[in-house]
Write a structure and sequence with these properties.
Elements lengths: L7 H10 L2 E9 L4 E8 L18 E6 L31 H10 L3
Antiparallel strand pairs: 1-2, 2-3
């Protein structure tokens, strides 16, 4: 799933707001994309400080070079072709109402 790269920095901050950390970035300049791997990294996480490839609950984001300047670019949402089959990401929280309020209060 590709993200809207015109707001890419915003997207990383959003996931950091959720408590995730950028644990690995893999630049692929020859193929014109970068991969970003985010995960929970606190001492209470399922696999804190484990190698980036051996984690529980890793989220992978892709930045396809040039999409930030392409007026016809649309991120894949998983609900239509091409890319049908993946539509959302779920993160478990103790209190959904409080979590939504914190996200909304932060301006997301």
């Amino acid at each position: 799933m590709a993200t809207n790269t015109s707001k890419y920095k915003f997207n990383l901050k959003f996931y950091e707001h959720l408590g995730m950390s950028l644990i690995q970035k893999i630049p692929q300049p020859d193929a014109k994309f970068d991969l970003y791997f985010l995960a929970y990294d606190s001492p209470t996480a399922m696999s804190p400080k484990a190698p980036w490839y051996d984690r529980q609950g890793i989220l992978e984001l892709t930045h396809n070079y040039g999409t930030e300047n392409d007026p016809n670019y649309k991120p894949a949402n998983g609900n239509s072709d091409p890319g049908r089959g993946f539509g959302h990401v779920c993160i478990a929280v103790d209190n959904i109402q409080a979590a939504c309020q914190r996200i909304e209060d932060a301006g997301y």
